[in-house]
Write a structure and sequence with these properties.
This protein is α+β, with helices and mostly antiparallel strands. It folds into two domains: 5-144, LON domain-like (Archaeosine Trna-guanine Transglycosylase, Chain: A, domain 4, Roll); 153-234, no CATH class. It contains seven helices and seven strands. It has a five-stranded mixed β-barrel with strand order 1-3-5-6-7. Strand 5 and strand 6 form a beta hairpin. Helix 3 (153-171) packs parallel to helix 5 and helix 3 runs parallel beside helix 7. The radius of gyration is 20 Å and the shape is elongated.
Length: 237
């Protein structure tokens, strides 16, 4: 079977997006405004990857090699100046990057994406290379098939117990009452007799202190491997 590859815009972020999770984003950097504009003219899809702190692409944050397709479901201007966009997205399939396509613009020294000067620097560089050039990273990616197995209620309840113990130990010396934890699970709609993979992702996100802890879950290829990664995440170290 041939794996289908496609070229998509990549948005490296300080988070892990799981399939079917919602992700609202505020867009203010010129290169990501261009990315959103291009998506809105096309299929509204881009890739969300956790930032790979050990690498860079022409000076910009590099993406980890496994990410999730995000589909824009809503896009609106924030404020009258049109300098910010608010988008709502939802996670689709995960993917693996086969090849990075760097932007022609290198990150300027002391670049501040929040400042007017930063925006001017980028506009000037963009005009130099040609305004039809893309300022954002793109990549050739292949889709990763979804895990379509279910998790047994026993395994799910075991993960919930591990999560409770971890939260209790993280809070020490403060004492957390069991009913408070149950209430938290209810708030996040995590009390269930029929757990699915989405429940596992949500529980893990509640138990992680750092987005890097969630990346191995996104990279898991079977339910067994996923449960094992979650157990590692929820083990009190």
């Amino acid at each position: 079977m041939l794996t289908q590859t496609k070229i998509i815009p990549i948005f490296p972020l300080d988070l892990v997006l799981f399939p079917r999770q919602e992700l609202p984003l505020r867009i203010f950097e010129p290169r990501y405004k261009q990315l959103v504009d291009d998506c809105m003219l096309g299929d509204r899809l881009f890739g969300v990857c956790l930032i790979d702190e050990t690498n860079s692409v022409n000076g910009w944050n590099a993406p980890k090699s496994v990410g999730t397709i995000a589909k824009i479901t809503k896009c609106e201007d924030v404020g009258v100046d049109g300098l910010q966009l608010h988008i709502e997205t939802i996670g689709r399939n995960s993917f693996r990057i086969k090849k990075i396509i760097p932007p022609p613009i290198t990150q300027p020294e002391n670049y501040d994406p929040l400042s007017i000067e930063g925006h001017q620097q980028i506009s000037e560089l963009h005009e130099k290379v040609g305004t039809d050039e893309k300022m954002y990273i793109k990549a050739e990616v292949e889709m990763i098939p979804e895990i379509d197995e279910d998790i047994s209620i026993e395994k799910w309840e075991n993960l919930v117990e591990m999560w409770k113990k971890k939260i209790v130990s993280q809070a020490l010396p403060q004492v957390i009452e069991p009913h408070a934890l149950n209430h938290l699970l209810e708030q996040y709609y995590l009390t269930t007799e029929t757990p699915t993979i989405d429940y596992i992702y949500s529980l893990s996100a509640l138990g992680a202190k750092d987005p890097n802890d969630l990346q191995p879950l996104l990279e898991a290829q079977t339910m067994e491997e996923l449960v094992q990664k979650v157990e590692e995440l929820l083990t009190i170290k």
